[in-house]
Amino acid sequence: MGVREERHPEGPRRWARTRRILSWFPDAVVVLLVAAAAANLAFDLDERWFGLEHADAQKQPAEVRPPEGLHLAAGTTAPPVASSSPGGRLSVVAVQRALAPYVGDGALGAHVDVAVSALDSDRIVYRSGTGAVTPASTTKLLTATAALEKIGPMARFRTTVRQAGRRLVLVGGGDPFLASSPTAAKGLYPARATLTELASRTAAALSAQGIKAVRLGYDDSLFTGPPVNPSWPATYLPQDVVPPITALWADEGRGPDHRYVSDPSRAAAAEFASALAAAKIKVRGAVEPATSADPDAEIAAVESAPLGEIVERTLAVSDNNAAEVIAHHVGLAVRQDASFSGGAAAVMQVLGQLGVDTNGSTVYDGSGLSRRDRLTPETLLGVLRVAASKDHPELRQVITGLPVAGFTGSLQWRFDDAPAEARGRVRAKTGTLTGVSGLAGIATDVDGNLMAFVAIADKVAVPQTLAARRDLDRIAAALGSCHCGAGASPTSGSTASPTSGPTS
Known about the structure:
By secondary structure, this protein is α/β, with parallel strands linked by helices. It has 2 domains: 231 residues, DD-peptidase/beta-lactamase superfamily (Beta-lactamase), CATH 3.40.710; 148 residues, CATH 3.50.80.20. The chain has 13 helices and 11 strands. A hairpin with a 5-residue loop joins strand 10 and strand 11. Helix 3 packs antiparallel against helix 13, helix 6 crosses helix 7 and helix 9 crosses helix 10.
């Protein structure tokens, strides 16, 4: 008797469901494979899951292997573009021989001071002329050095807005490069803070409080004393030489026509009011001077570039306005006197603390625009030596800010009529006033000897201005292109007869 198979009543239905599920399986597999492929392309999952990760060409370019079949030759060490030399002790005779053909040229006028020392020594190997000179813009070397020493290369100057209810006060922080707008700041070094950005931040803070209209004042009281230096000629302002110096300005006190305005603080506040209006904050009433609210009431701020970058720019293009603002800051930091007189006194005080010989030197401003300024070559040489010293890395931007002969800043278009070897080997601050032309900087001769030098003529006849400038370029170039070390051969450099005796 055969065995009868017992069938469960759910069997046929379960089998039907199983068959339907199995019929979807190929489609599901295809979907999963496509999804996996997409994820792999997006996230390199195969490399991460299976340890096959390759080097990222953007993060580790040196680790990327070349494709198969490509064989690259092993790299070799590139030859040096120039031989280096540590230099040595300067030769009095060699320096004298190099400078002799140029120092006595009549175009330089009746009073010329030239001095040369090793960059790491106070031993002067060449000195022609006597007494102090009108330094013109070489004075900026003193201002820059004192500022970096006392304030620090990373210091920034803040322009702020303080609030008391529905009243705002724009507070100047002495930012020499504050710009009115991104358009005014475009392409400039260093980067500029702008009143437009400050207005945007202020508007955001006010909108968060539901405030749509305010009254506005401005405070430029950080700087004290007269806004125009009493030692400057009265013609400077009407001739658009320099603006009034204040702790609050935009575009260095220039108006839309690029001329200096009579009241830079008021003009900056008016610009800020317009920027607030553009940011949907209405300014009611006149914009007037005011006493700032409590510092804790600050609602917005913008900051300048670091002081070191400001110094570099100031020296490179000989920015008189920025130099005066910087000097005011030195006065504030040293003597709590942010005025022309306070700044000048503070600069000399800091230099004395650095060991610079300031005997016989007097300054009345930070830019060198005053014709009453007097500096000895020894003071200028001392500033250059201390700024280049390894003991004072905080001062290095005094050196890096110096224009390079034939390449940058105020020396970009000079040194055409000079030995080609000197271009790039001389870095120097220019100094120019009517009847005054000078250079103070460092030179590296062809053997690697480092020198600090000063060459200033302050009684130049006006028709001889360009000729005198050419002679000063040649003096500096003679140092950059000479063999001025103690081992120099008797025929190295110029063989002209010397016109002045050296001192040692």
